[in-house]
Amino acid sequence: MKSTIVRFLTVFCVGLALWGCSSGSGDAPAIDPTTGRHPANWIETHWGEFRKDRDQCVSCHGSYLDAGQSGGISGVSCFSPNRGAQVCHATGPAGHPAGWGAADQHGRSGAMAAPAVAAGFAYCSRCHGALFDNGPARSCFACHTNAPHPDAPWHGTTASGTNHIFVDQGNAPECAKCHATGANSTLQPTTPAPAGTPAGCFNNTLCHGAEAGHPAGWSDPNSANFHGPRAKAADSPSGGFSYCRRCHGANYQGVGTAVSCFSATVGAFSCHNGGAPAIAPHSPAPWRAARTHTNTDTTNAASCAACHANGANSTRQPTTPAPAGTAAGCFNNTLCHGSDVQPPHPVAGAYLPSAQHGADAINRNNNGTGLNTCQPCHATPASGANPRFNVPRGATLTAGCETCHTARTAHPTPWLIGRGTTQGVTNQLRHSTLAVLATAGTAVTNYCTLCHGANLDGAGGVAPSCVSGSSRLNIAGVNAVCHFNAVAVKDSGTGLFNIQTGCVSCHGNPPVGSTFPNRDLQHTEHLFPNVTCGSCHSGAGYATVLHGNGTANVVLSATFQDKDGGAPAYNAGTGTCSNVSCHGGQTSPPWPSGQINVSTDCASCHAYGTTQFNSFSSGDKRHHTEITLVCSECHDTTKLATTHFTNLQTSAMEGPASSTLLDSLNYDPATRSCLFTCHIGNENHTRSMTW
């Protein structure tokens, strides 16, 4: 009986106390009067009742200020560290822990953490509402104005981790409330997940697909979706290295669910160091071969500066570092390259004139530049043979050098002065210029063979054969082939080309065609021993400054100066030569229309009584002026043909005239007399009549 009374009093007292709890605030009861318990959602809502009237809790829970006196008759202290699985207030009923307002507390360590009794977005929703703005606690939108998290794109890289990649994937169901099938996101799955699929970060139920948030093939170098070009693209919200950093961290070491860019492998694919841990977030140095930095958009310079400021971690340092505070740029001495107008050079238009980049491309100034220097940035491959200079550069050179130059070339076409235009400008240089540079000889080897093959025949090269002719070179106005013979003979010992054979490769020996550059004209008639191309084109042959300039420069060699001493000259207007020994100092017939019959037009070159080398002033005057009015009356043209032009390069010019006399004259060299009957008056020549 006594025990029954005790239990009654106890229940009465507790009920009385609970009544007090339920009525202290004057609002909705905090205690169910039937069960004597708090409502089912008391954990989520009790803090609100506490804030309304803290003292209403004291009667059951004791002090909310002194942990030693807390607990009361309920035995539940406001300083309890937990209530079952529920984490409570180990330091007292002060709401969230001190500092909870900091992003790394309520964000990274709270809402973004793996769902738990006191973590995860679901935990937040218990007090802040299912939509985080409709709960009894303060709306999350009170601070995060557009969403219950930082504003889009929520890709921050701060140390506090204000980046959604740090969100534990277990929160996906909470994310789905706003982002199902990519809602409220710039990224939607291309193939939405089947209905009923549990929300997940990478299963097409929210924003990302199955491959770590990237498109399929992101790690496959053979895929169109390979990540390299995306990383090297212009810096933007969807490309460039800064785009990578949003998920992979400021140092690319990987954070959250994003892997490290220094990883050895990802799935079945090796990463940046052939399967070994990488030392850079890109391909190994020099990164100028098949994988090259030269096609990285320069807007990524700030990202590059993280590792390469002032040439750090590079083989190239700017000779004059940029002033402090200079914004990072590829060609302003802040990273690896300077701003001098040499390769590497500014990307501005100042370098586009051929006088700038063209001269450097052929190392015209012998300043250490040259096509090989252009190759790492402008060609594929970046080194070695058979490059194609079509690597896009910026918004202008979308096809690299081939944007202005013909496909598969990095020079004007045709590369002849005065022929053709490049970008509307008449070509100013010619390919033979290479041979007169300070690097003559080797220049041909180094540059021409780079694309045209080791023997300039196109074998193994990306460019056509130099022995290919107009049909492939498409040279306007040139119908005949160029270099129809070997371009040049390469000396296996020196590796240089024997340019002496260069003339005949285009012009023939002699020229026998009807169109440039193999035009016969009167060349065949001038094909004599010891007469070369240089006899009439002195200083204008292959590898000279006058060669290949669109004009057939005639510069007569001093070797053929006449005896009067006048300078040999060619009149381009009349096409005639003067003061040349081979024409006896007389003005030659016009080239190419004039003709000389060497058997009958002797006087065209031979004049009586002059001081020229080939004058016939010797002997008895009567023989030349009276008796033999026609040269062939005494000189045998058949004999003459064998000796006529045998020594044109000398003052003798030809064989002795006496050797060409007709046999019928019975000429005796010893007595220099003839013995025959002259048909003029039937006068008998006797030995007494010396020549």
Word description of this protein:
Residues 1-29 and 469-480 have low confidence and may be disordered. Helices cover 20% and strands 4% of the residues. It is mainly α. It has a domain at 349-405 and 435-484. The strands form six sheets. It has a two-stranded antiparallel sheet with strand order 1-2. The protein has a two-stranded antiparallel ribbon with strand order 3-4. The protein is built from 17 helices and twelve strands. The longest helix has 22 residues, at 2-23. One of its GO terms (molecular function) is oxidoreductase activity.
Task: Present the secondary structure layout.
Layout: H1 2-23, H2 42-52, H3 58-61, E1 82-83, E2 86-87, H4 103-111, H5 121-128, H6 172-179, H7 227-232, H8 241-248, E3 265-266, E4 269-270, H9 301-308, H10 354-361, H11 371-378, E5 421-422, E6 425-426, H12 442-452, H13 470-473, E7 489-490, E8 497-498, H14 502-507, E9 514-515, E10 518-519, H15 533-536, E11 569-571, E12 576-578, H16 621-627, H17 637-643
Antiparallel strand pairs: 1-2, 3-4, 5-6, 7-8, 9-10, 11-12
GO molecular function, one term: oxidoreductase activity
InterPro entries: C4xCH_C2xCH_motif_GEOSU, Multihaem_cyt_sf, Multiheme_Cytochr_ET
Keywords: Signal
In terms of per-residue confidence, which ranges show pLDDT below 50 for 5 or more consecutive residues? 1-29, 469-480
Radius of gyration: 49 Å
Strand-residue proportion: under 5%
End-to-end span in angstroms? 181 Å
Number of helices: 17
Could you give the order of strands across the largest sheet?
1-2
Tell me, briefly, the overall form.
rod-shaped
The number of E-state strands comes to: 12
* Rounded average pLDDT: 78
InterPro entries: C4xCH_C2xCH_motif_GEOSU (IPR010176), Multihaem_cyt_sf (IPR036280), Multiheme_Cytochr_ET (IPR051829)
Protein name: Cytochrome c
Keywords: Signal
Signal peptide: 1-30
